[in-house]
Write a structure and sequence with these properties.
Layout: H1 9-12, H2 21-36, H3 42-45, H4 49-57, H5 66-82
Length: 83
């Protein structure tokens, strides 16, 4: 991605479907956190201990899945190409 380019994470992951809105919202917020602080550890990227803890717990949720993330990104890429 070119320097200075920004992504709207809610738009980027609009197709995300973990069947749990709270988990989807947490994933989008976490992605925004890491986008603002690339290369930072989870502890340093999170604004506070609660956010860092939530990020650590997210992959342990049985509804969280990489396949869903990849599908949402693919859908977003197609939308950007068509527009």
């Amino acid at each position: 991605m070119a320097r200075g380019t920004s992504l709207d994470m809610e738009e980027e992951f609009a197709g995300l479907n973990f069947h749990l809105l709270r988990l989807e919202d947490r994933f989008v917020r976490s992605t925004e956190t890491f986008y603002k602080r690339p290369g930072a550890s989870i502890c340093k990227a999170g604004e506070d201990r609660a956010e860092s803890g939530a990020i650590y717990r997210m992959p342990g949720n049985e509804r969280f899945g990489r396949k869903g993330i990849a599908e949402a990104r693919r859908e977003a890429a197609v939308r950007r190409t068509v527009e």
